[in-house]
Amino acid sequence: MASSENEASYHSTSPASDELRSLPPEHTCIQKFRLYETLSNFYMIGTDKSNTYWRVLKIGRLDPSELNVREDSTTYTESEISDLLRRIHEGNKSTGGLKFVTTCYGIVGFIKFLGPYYMLLITKRRQIGAICGHTVYAVSKSEMIPLRSSSVQSNMTNTKSENRYKKLLSMVDLTKDFYFSYSYHIMRSLQRNLCENETGHVLYETMFVWNEFLTQGIRNSLQNTLWTVALVYGFFKQDTLAISGRQFILTLVARRSRHYAGTRMQESRFSAILAIQIKEGLMIEQPWWSDDDD
């Protein structure tokens, strides 16, 4: 019953003039998210940096063994999003209503061990630099949230093996040596970014996107990468230099391949993929606030 009420309230809020609504620019990036939950669904509310365009992602909870995600094609305003959330809450009051879960800054991916799916989120970020005006961030805090609703029973949720796999994943510290950018393709070299205009799935399929596998499910379902961030594992350092009275920004970027990213173990003898492959890049640019014209 909760699911049917939820569906009714959700669809009734879509503006009548969807076909006339101005869509966000093609390269608009969703950078800020709020996660809400009802008994039967998660609702991820995303907006761009200026809080101008708002989108909705619905994640099912009634069958946590399957990844059920659906993106609302409507682009909302802030007031329309508030009205949408109010109506979802009203439609689910009998089962506890709509509850705020967390603020986050992107989906790292979804993973399943022996039982339900889990959603990995970036809940805190920090700015570590910028390339050509595009901000680069590091992960300050992450969280793994089970999709399973409290009303759905799972025999595997608390088993010894399930907890062991969860512990193994939690040993990967995303706050160290991982970085990402919403608007710059940090997994590729500056030369490729200047010469090629590839977007979407192609970018995630490079060897330098650490969470390529974790994002496969949602990317294949939605056919876009609007809600996920492409994490790169490696090194990023940026500093400002002054040479002959002129300021320059020096950026050192190193990307480690996700293939055989640990101990070499002689893997390179048996595979065409190098056991440890790291690409480095050095960039020098003048800051945009420089007084020099040339």
TrEMBL record:
Catalysed reactions, as listed in the record: a 1,2-diacyl-sn-glycero-3-phospho-(1D-myo-inositol-3,5-bisphosphate) + H2O = a 1,2-diacyl-sn-glycero-3-phospho-(1D-myo-inositol-3-phosphate) + phosphate
Quaternary structure and partners: Component of the PI(3,5)P2 regulatory complex at least composed of ATG18, SAC/FIG4, FAB1 and VAC14.
Q: Which GO terms describe its biological process?
A: phosphatidylinositol dephosphorylation
The terms under GO molecular function for this entry are: phosphatidylinositol-3,5-bisphosphate 5-phosphatase activity
What InterPro entries does the annotation carry?
Answer: Fig4-like, SAC_dom
Presence of keyword Hydrolase? yes
Keyword Membrane recorded:
yes
Source species of the chain: Arachis hypogaea (Peanut)
According to UniProt, the name of this protein is SAC domain-containing protein
